[in-house]
Design a protein that fits this description.
3 helices; elongated; single chain; 0% strand; 46% helix; FitA-like_RHH; mainly alpha
Length: 81
């Protein structure tokens, strides 16, 4: 595991970090780790709504949809006169 040092951290930021860590029942170090993990995770490519929809239904066993057959021929083209 890597270690980093943060220098010149504003005293107010340190104070707010301490309060935030206490609210979450963590040490300041653990809170900083969690914040960094969350910050990096946000940089991942956002999932499309199709993938999120699929994952949501896959978690409950999926959904089978009946696709109606296509009915003959071509449709008329819309005219914008």
């Amino acid at each position: 595991m890597a270690a980093i040092t943060v220098r010149s951290l504003d005293d107010d930021v340190k104070h707010r970090l301490r309060i935030r860590a206490a609210k979450h029942g963590r040490s300041m170090e653990a809170e900083v780790r969690e914040i960094l993990v969350d910050a990096v995770a946000e940089e991942e490519e956002p999932k499309s709504w199709v993938i999120r929809f699929h994952e949501a239904f896959a978690a409950i066993g999926g959904v089978e949809l009946d696709i109606p057959p296509r009915t003959g021929g071509h449709r008329e083209m819309v005219k914008f006169d």
